[in-house]
Amino acid sequence: MTSTHAAPELSYLDHKLAMYRCQVALRQFEQRAYDLFLENYVKGTSHLSIGQEAIAAGVAAAMRPTDWTFATYRGHAHTLARGVPMTPIFAELMGRTNGLMAGKGGSMHLTSVEHGMMGSYAIIGAHLPIACGAAWSAQYRGTDQVAVAFFGDGSVNIGAFHEALNFAAIWKLPVIFFCENNLWMEYTRTSDVTAVANPAADRAAAYGLESIIVDGNDADAVYEVTSVAIARARAGEGPSMIEAKTYRHGGHSRADPGKYRPDEELAEWLLKDPIPLYRSRLLGMGVSEDDLLVLEAGVDAEVETATNEAKAGDVPGEELLMKDVWADGGASWRN
Amino acid sequence: MAQLTFREAIARGIAQEMRRDESVVMLGEDVGAAGGVFKGTVGLLEEFGDVRVRDTPISEQAILGAAMGAAMTGLRPIAEIMFSDFFAVCWDIVANEIAKSRYMTNGQVTFPLVIRSGNGGGLRFGAQHSQSVENWAMMIPGLKVVVPSNAIDVIGLMAAAVRDPDPVIFLEAKALYASKMDVPDGEIVDTLGSAKVLRQGSNATVIALGSMVPKALQAADELASDGIECTVIDVRSLVPLDTATILREVSATGRVFTVEENPRLCGWGAELASIIADEVFYDLDGPIVRITTPHIPLPAADALEDLAIPSVERIVSTIHKSMNS
Fold first, then answer.
1. Strand partners, B205
2. Domains in chain B, ordered, with CATH?
């Protein structure tokens, strides 16, 4: 590992263990979120990142606390990876006052500004130009903050994607466009509706950017490639686009069992599950099985505690309904 | 005191705020080197430089997305959408993102930004470059909507919009860009959400917005010579809405006419009619009458456009007919 500047206080091994713990936490969180949906604690829709944890963990490890994440509606993992505790996220999914946004946003809009989590955006592509704006602000104010915008493979055919790429390129903005290519749009295979084989990377040249493809199931590889892109952005060398190949183990959303996908495709990707792969790597480096079991048990306990704390939250009432449309805290539109 | 056109007032209002606050930046298509296609931003690039006044590609989603991202991280952008009709290609950023994100995040973010746009007809540009879209914005919770009708108000309301912590849609009536008035020297700062009573009369209250305000005033002059004395209110701000002034003036005359450039359905006047009927119904002496463009796309031909948009003659004849029936 050549680049560990994002976590200089961590030793090489601690850094790897932290990325492993992050991935396990994302997996356990998402599995519990699904269970809570089945138990009718979680209402509405939710989009899980099971299978894609290496991306959230690897990118977050390469970021500084002052950097900004702009995620999609599939944003639980990115929110957790930026350091937001589990309890307010579970509570948000359950619509409780102890939720991250007191229940007013829900699963698809997780936001924690104090953690640099600048929002989860549920309209495909919209947040790419918004991330450009944050990057422009950093550039204008002379900070070295970087914005990272995650998006799915389905986003590459919408106008906002192309507008944002061109805009970031011409203004040399410190923004990373990170494509989580899980091969499937919603129910449609992205390659069936996309003119190029690598939906994001093959478009990079159109905006004068390098084509970068990474194994999205390898947190170390994700961390490495992201670190390089972030360093470039901080140095004023402009945006990068990274396409990570990955796979969601489940359906698009809670309502989708994902049956349209061939069994053999799913089986092949389950063999590439990022978490067992990373676990084996750690064992190969000399980390003991016992240490990993302790780490994993710690995550189990964290999920359990957070679930209970979230369930104990109050159901929001009218005092929240008319709050915070405007900066003055209210919702008044007339005198 | 200097005589300024409406379009010159825009640049003066923006310059006033950019001199005061370094976090105020501007972006849009042709706003810098060209000074704006309607010449509303002439001189700003020269005074403030290309770091603060930025020309953009034709990318309305990028323009407004960038304004939003900048506003949520410490800047106060003024973005231009050249023609308000083009809101249709970036309405996601306006209606879904800018308007809702503060509420959805339980108040974690604010969006101190202004979106300026040339609005409305009168220039014979046809159906896609002439719409009055104030009602598109008015119906979205989370957006403030300002429509000035003269140069002094342009400066003062621009200052108020820039200083406001919430997103403001600032619609400039294209038909008024060339209109002139004497404008005092020095800083001008107005207040959002305040309607203005421009003329007081005892027989009817005429409520107008933007380009319809000078027409309403002229109509009131003509009606006065026929013995009908009208109060004329310039609404100026649809959100927040100064219902106190409007209801007070309506109650004083007992008759209400709205003059709206927008097509008929769901115009701001319909909302006002509803509020008036709800709250001061028993002060009314007759029906509330809306004078609007018919519910059609605007035609290009000058003769047809003039038939469509409320004219002084139509305002006068409508009020006459209604008051004498």
1. B231, B256
2. 2-183 (3.40.50.970), 196-324 (3.40.50.920)
Half-sphere exposure of B318 (CA within 13 A, CB side): 22
Residue A331 lies in a domain: no
**What are the pLDDT digits (tens) for A168-207?**
999 999 999 999 999 999 999 999 999 999 999 999 999 9
Band of the pLDDT at A308, cuts 50, 70, 90? very high
Q: Is the peptide bond prior to B240 cis by the omega test (within 30 degrees of 0)?
A: yes
CB-CB neighbors (< 8 A) of A170 in chain B: 57
**Closest residue in B to A69 (Cα–Cα):** B69
Q: Is B295 a catalytic residue?
A: no
Please name the residue of chain B whose CA is at the shortest distance from the CA of residue A158: B61
Would A21 be classed as within a structural domain?
Answer: yes
What's the complex ipTM?
0.96
Count of domains in chain A?
1
CATH of the domain at A34: 3.40.50.970
Give residue B68's pLDDT band: very low, low, confident or very high (50, 70, 90). very high
The sheet with strand B168-173 has its strands ordered as B53-55, B24-28, B76-83, B114-119, B168-173, B144-146, B237-239
Closest CA to B21 of B76, B93, B70: B76
CA-to-CA distance for B36 and A116, rounded, in angstroms?
36
State the residue range of the domain holding A138. Answer: 12-313
Question: Model-level pTM greater than 0.90?
Answer: yes
A5 domain residue, yes or no: no
Catalytically annotated residue among B54, B129, B174, B215? B129
pLDDT of res. A254: 80
Distance from CA of B179 to the nearest CA of A (A): 30
List CB contacts (< 8 A) between B142 and chain A: 325-326
Question: Which residues touch A271 (CB under 8 Å, ≥6 apart)?
Answer: none
Query: How many angstroms separate the CA atoms of A178 and A165, rounded?
Result: 11
Over 80: is that where the pLDDT of A9 sits?
Answer: no
Under 8 Å between Cβ of A334 and B241: yes
List of chain A residues whose C-beta atoms are within 8 Å of the C-beta of residue B101: 109, 111, 119
pLDDT digits (tens, 9 = 90+) for A71-80: 999 999 999 9
Quick check: is A293 in a domain?
A: yes
Does A6 have pLDDT greater than 70?
no
Nearest to A325 among B102, B164, B242 (CB): B102
What is the residue whose two structure tokens read 């209801």?
B247
Cβ <8 Å between B70 and A329: no
pLDDT, residue A256, reads 86
